[in-house]
Amino acid sequence: MIDQSFDFGEIVSVNFGVSLRSNGNMHFVPTDAATKDALKQILRQTRGIFVGLPDEWEPYDISEDYGARRRVYAPRDNEFMREIATVFDAGALDDLANISDHAYDVEFYFAEFRDGLNRKAVGIRKATQLKGTLNARNRLVRLVDDTLVLIQEDVLNLDTEFDLIVTDPHVFILNPRQTEHLAKIVQQVASTAAEKVKVIHDSIPFLDLSRIAEKIGNHPRMARHAASIALNPNLANFQRPAIESLAAKHGIKFKELGDGRLQCRVSDEARLLELLDARRYHLDLQGDGGAPYRATARQRVSA
What we know:
The protein has 9 helices and 14 strands. By secondary structure, the chain is an alpha+beta fold.
């Protein structure tokens, strides 16, 4: 999948850039041929990690608790990838010639690559390690003709992989936590949480979520579940008996309002959203009634 929109074997141009935390501005930074070659290697290394993972590609899930690395992607036009798409679409940028004066202000760095068909890929990395060696000036040495020579210049440290790679159709996510920071997903989820709950409320006619909508912006985990549920194209097909049955097994209690909708207890609101987000299930393999389970991490599998 990742090889369909960019040729990692034929990279014909490289531009290196940074984004400054203080003002959000992006700049290109002049680089020599050796640095460009190193950036190509980092891109190929990142692609190689994706290729070496055993699972199939899976869509990014806003409510997933990602642990071990997986092949995760999102459409570039995904609502939660807008900040990332901005980097890809940046176009021509002014050069930042005095990078040493701004090194501590770098939020992330990125490299823009073009292949033989002029297709673009952008690798992005949170700048945690980039600045890690600045305080080590006059304490770093290099080996020259079997002699240790002190490095007196400022030194920046490139990582061995990008957190994500962006192509025209997709964002390929290697490190979800860093990607979410760069994409400002926490802020986006909080600002749209009430809207997402309304989508769920309007799509499932037998549930009342109006009380949840009033306060969900202050509950980040619930807001993520709501964002995930709202993306489900099958919400209108949810069945009342099935939800009532599963809810009872998880101790979720409802009362029926005057309009016929079901409203859960305040203490059950988080659990109800987990249930609607397919993160609660009941398993009975021994025929003894089984037990309820909660899954913060999941992968959908094919038969």
